[in-house]
Amino acid sequence: MKKTFMVIGLGRFGSNIAKTLVAMNCDVLAVDINEESVSAISGFVPHCVIADATKERVLEELGAKTIDHVVVAIGNNLQASILTIVNLRHLGVRNITVRADEESHKEVYLTLGASDVIIPEESAAISLANQIVSDSILDYYEVSKGYALAKIIIGKDYEENLIELDLRNKYDINIVGLINEEGDFFIPRGTDKLQKGNIAVVVGTKQKIKKIDEFFNN
Length: 218
Ligand code: ADP
Description:
This protein has about 220 residues and is α/β, with parallel strands linked by helices. Helices cover about 40% and strands about 25% of the residues. Bound molecules: adenosine-5'-diphosphate (ADP).
């Protein structure tokens, strides 16, 4: 069954989440207390309503109980974020991702029952720093504490195939995808060989990603 989403708070962060989910063909209900924020997004998101998420009854009427995943993107309004999380938990919502502005708010949201808290500026800064530190790392996303997914250019041709290189054991990383010179993505087989100019999509700890970048490019 198709997953359903509710995005609460349609500032820059929330509206981009809502638009992206709609573009990915998901069912999204976008909510904001402010009429202008709702009308700004109405051309992109078919279901959007003006509502105050700090009121449990309002969320219940919007059908929050049946939503699979709620994103709380109220921004710097700590009190409204707290009340919204508590309401959602009362209604039995399990997956609640909250956008926080400050590290100190993160623990509060998690204690109240948020399943995940993200600080967009922090994530973007970490990702950017990791990209610019090496010319061969094109993209970098922190997927969980200490772990990341990175796109790394391969700087030379390898004689051995992936089984023979045994990078999983030697470097403790997984190559989950390769992008060839034409820009086509494919999931590699053990018999594939790494070629100069291809891009490897790699998962591992940050330290191991640094090591594998050195292996591909030194
Ligand atoms: P950003 O940094 O992502 O632009 P903002 O702080 O500008 O974030 O946006 C937060 C949004 O959350 C605003 O559009 C605001 O109207 C909305 N908002 C604030 N309180 C509530 C509430 N109680 N219920 C629903 N939306 C709210």
